[in-house]
Fold these 2 entries.
Entry 1:
Amino acid sequence: MSERLEDIAVRMVAGGRGLLAADESTGTIGKRFDTIGLQSTETSRRDYREMLFRTEDAMRQYISGAILYEETLHQKAADGTPFVDIIRAADSIPGIKVDIGAKPMAAYPGETITEGLDGLAERLAKYYEAGARFAKWRGVIAISPTLPTWGSMKANAHALARYAALCQQANIVPIVEPECLMDGKPGDHNIDRCAEVTEWTLRTVFEELADARVSLEGMILKPNMVIDGKNARKASVAEVAERTVEVLKRTVPSAVPGIAFLSGGQSSEEATAHLSAINSGYDLPWAVTFSYGRALQDTALKAWGGKPENVAAGQRAFAHRAEMNSLAAKGSWKKDLEQAA
Ligand code: 5MM
């Protein structure tokens, strides 16, 4: 008998565990590997992801699920063990990114629409067979003095809702990710503008989810935090937490079991500090945790550097960030824990 969507959704966010976003498309992982001077090949991508997924204690204690790219869902470790089995053996859930990317939107200069709905029902059935129990789709909302437009906002929210309904029909929990960009261009907006755009985005997304008859109990929201643009950063940790909670409380129904933030280009430690502040001092109706890509992986990637002799160092770095973010998901991270490590 298949597990209920509601139960899987709760497992994804409960107990101070969170999600590892390891779903970089081939282009994006190539850019990440460029930073360590490593060529991206099927083998180097396998070796890197094997290092992460085989950090067994950290996966078991801190990582409830891993979001995979299609190649990784079907990939095997060097000894032939499927990655899906390695993830499951650590009591973690395999998930899959199902969008095929944010593409320039016709007639809307500077904005994108995320593609991938055609044939999605058939693909989801195959992903379920392969072991995926949740999925992810990212809609991208640009922020500038004149963007986003209503046309792009509505199209992206509609696509997110269509995707979510298809996932639930396939017994897969949808992670709904509308990302209002912190690191887009020009990236000089202040926190007020981010709050305004994020509130508008989440309101639109939840209206579309209702119209698409998506069960709120069987989904997870993956939003950005409310924060100023990357070229205008000045809000304190407390202010980011306060503004983020304010916007989420205005827009996210309490029937949603969990919110798992993206890191969006924040430094690893900032993303942890903000999550911890959000989880301490506020009475929240949802479990609030992490679904970080860069903020969980950056230090591990650097420590590894593409060298087999550095696998243990990479795993230590990954385990450390996973533990810090797990503490943050419980509101009990402290800066001195970073220094101690
Ligand atoms: C890990 O990066 C994900 C995939 O990006 P591409 O499709 O562009 O390759 C991305 O969707 C990620 O899951 C989220 O943006 C969260 O990652 P960050 O790094 O913002 O925490």
Entry 2:
Amino acid sequence: MPQLAGRVPAERGDGILCSRMAQDLPRVVAAVVAVTLLGCIAACAAPGGARPGVAAPDAARARMVEEQIAGRGITDPAVLQAMRTVPRHEFVPPQSRADAYADWPLPIGHGQTISQPYVVALMTELAAVKPGDRVLEIGTGSGYQAAILSAVGAEVYTVEIVEPLARGAEAVLRRLGYGRVHVRHGDGWRGWPEAAPFNAVVVTAAPPVVPPALVAQLAPGGRLVIPVGEEEQELRVLVRTPSGIETRAGVPVRFVPMVVGPGTGGSVPPGNGRPQEVR
Ligand code: SAH
């Protein structure tokens, strides 16, 4: 299965806006649809052969924020600041480092990808994280999204099903000094009940349906940002309000599939509950 993650076109000035308000989300509909595969192909086809590293990472990062993030309508100052400060090149494998600030996802091994920078910023803005919030991430991958959540002031709990990715991300996060990020190797379908409730839950792999445990682990006012679906996915924001769970968004996206194994308590429809291979 191709490994996919949300990405949007690279054009500048394409009028894409995003906001945590649901009514603004359709404005990115045409944008947040593209395919990681294209990004991976572009990454692999880019000139340069062996890639020694990214030249002038600070300048590349500033340009990334200006063109890809602020340029597409991300306005939350804390998110913009986090995207300016977290060294994305430290989270990508050496052979992809020259493309660390490019406008597409990159392979991180084990058939997985680090999401496109814009998608990381969008999900962080939709999660509306405040300093001191407890945030659960499902799908640690490289650890980059976790670092961004930490940089906006959250205490982060992140779960990754592929053990070498979990260990690798933990090592990078420790080395870079992100002490308030807790990494667990395990199945994120169940969330992290011992650390709940969470002010926000950010899911970076797409399950066929919303995992009930993740909704149950939301604090009052808490937000769950999650791509849902198989071939066709939409990015939803579920909010725990005093009157119940409100679903506030529905933007088309493509993410890698969430591995759905045993232990889903029958909450996945027949046919979708078969274990998927992690490559
Ligand atoms: N957030 C990551 C990118 C995630 S890619 C980053 O910033 O780099 C999606 C990740 O979800 C992959 O690493 C994949 O192994 C993981 N994943 C898939 N199914 C999962 C599950 N059931 N529980 C936890 N992690 C899962």
